[in-house]
Every structure is written in C-alpha cells, then in structure tokens.
Amino acid sequence: MKFDTSLGFGTDLKDVPVLARAAEASGFDAMWTTETQHDPFLPLALAAEHTQRIQFGTAVTIAFARSPVVLAHTAWDLANLSGGRFILGLGTQVKAHIERRFGMTWSGKPVSQLREFVLALRAVWECWRNGTRLNFRGEHYKLTLMTPFFSPNPIQHPHIPIYIAGVGVPLCKLAGEVADGFLVHPYHTPKYLVEVIRPAIEDGAKKAGRTSRDVVVSGTAFVALDEAEREVIRAQIAFYASTPSYRPVLDFHGWGAIGEQLSALAARGQWGEMPALIGDEMLETFAVVAGWDEAADRVKARYTGLVDRIAFYRPFVSGSDEEQWRKVIGRMKDEG
Known about the structure:
Blueprint: E1 2-6, H1 16-26, E2 30-33, H2 42-49, E3 55-58, E4 61-62, H3 68-82, E5 86-91, H4 95-101, H5 110-130, E6 136-137, E7 142-143, E8 162-166, H6 169-178, E9 181-184, H7 190-207, E10 216-224, H8 227-241, H9 247-252, H10 256-267, H11 280-286, E11 287-289, H12 292-303, E12 309-312, H13 322-332
Parallel strand pairs: 1-2, 1-12, 2-3, 3-5, 4-5, 5-8, 8-9, 9-10, 10-11, 10-12
Antiparallel strand pairs: 6-7
Helix pairs in contact: 1-2, 3-5, 5-6, 6-7, 12-13
C-alpha cells in the first residue's frame, strides 16, 4: 500500500518547491492537489521541476469546468515535464457548482458525460502520439479537428493514468469500466468500501472485460491526531454528509435521517449547528482517532487489502511536524 500526501488548500505557489522536495525526502509516494482555493495544476508543474521520484496528481480537478482538449494539453505537458509521474484525477462536482461557480452547463447526465470525457482525452492523446485522425463523436463532446499546428510532439511517457472520483455506485462502476484508478472520497467508511465501492468497481470492470486489479483504488482517510482535530473532522464530516448526492453513505449505515437534518441546516446557512449531529460513534466510523504514535498502525489495520494507496486527510507541512511524518511513513511502509 503506497502512502501519499497532499498540499494544503491554501498553499502559496512560492512554497511548493520546498514542500515538494521535503515530501519526497520524507518518503511519500505521491503528492496530490485539489481544485478548491487555487488552480490544481500550477503547483504540480513546480513539484515536477523540483523533484525526481515522487508522483503527483489532481484529487481532483473538475472535468466539467473544462474542455477535454484544454485538459489534454495540460496533462500532456505535465506528463512530459515529470517524466511520466503525473496522474490525472477527475471529478464531476454537482449541478450548483458547475452552473453557479464555474458558469458552465450541467448536462444532467454526469456519469455518461464523464465516460465520454475520459474517452475523449484518450482519443486526443492517441491523435498526438500516433498521428491518427481525431474523430470523437459522442452525446456530450464532438472532437473532429486537430491540425499539426495545434498538435504537440510525441512524448516519452504518453500513457497518462486517469483516476476518477465518486461516492455513489454509478461512478464506482464507471471507474471499473474506463479508468486507471478510483479516488475514494474521504467521506467513506471501511464497510462502505467493502460492501459498496469495491463490488461496484468489480462489476464495471467485468462489463468492460477487465478485472478490478486493473483499477488502482486510492483512498484518503480522516485521521484525528488530537482533540482539536476531532472537532475539525467532525465538522468536515457534517459538511460532506449534508450533500444530498452523498446521502447513500449515511443511508447505508442507517443514518439517513441525520443527513436530512444536516441538509436542512446547510440550506439555512446554520453551519455552526451541524457538527453536533455527528456523534462519537459516527465520528469513529468515518475517522481514525489516534495520536501520532498510533496513527499509522491504526490506518494500516483499517485499510490494508481495501486500497492500493492511502493518504491522511491532512496536508503535509514542512517544518514542525516533519519528524512526526517521517515516523508515520516508516510505520506505514514497515511490512512487519
């Protein structure tokens, strides 16, 4: 099981080279960025330039906020710059964000649209790699024009892994069908992984004539290292659980009524009242609660055999916690 990390949501670009070098020196296998407060790709260009071994990727970038060709160019360049260390992680987001935050059109068919998006990316890359005519025609995207003036040169590592993210069964199945990996949302439980996510990936893989071994399962674990972090994570779980499209996880555990209450509070902007609905039993179902010395062993016990790579829902910070991180990494990679 590989052990990854992430850049903090508010990381300044000028700090990325130092953080990337420190993360690589500490022994992390990959560093991920998110599309929250900053562009997810610019930090990765800096990380590629200032490291040699560590992989890096987006977890996630929002597919429907972009053209497949625009994203194909960005990924192609990052794969080339990094010597093949880049992983493209895609998410769909939800209607309100696509329409009101990005100003784009919501198709109402996110699963079929994401399937086409992945296939369109690969069609573009195939065109650039082998000079084949671009002729992608689908319900959501039509790409039929690519002249030499707009085609980049072939690169040494043209196979760019595409991971997709999701919570519900349809996107898990889609990962099994078309993706190289599946990014498990932090808002999950081990039981949901075992009984919902992994079987859905297997079903999708069988449909496409593949096996689940063809899909890397990458998870992010809520880990509360002290009392203050318990409350931060309690609030984060409440935020995610208020999202109607994430309701299947709560329903699966018999907590659907709590999800409805959280959604109602969120609709009224009563964010401060939401964490109180996440009791300790629910918190410890979603999160590992342990200090630095026990965290690695608890995470390994929880996820070994369930995911191929794991990260803490806690950004890597160079400096004060670096020695603690080194100890955690050592325990995570200790096979004894």
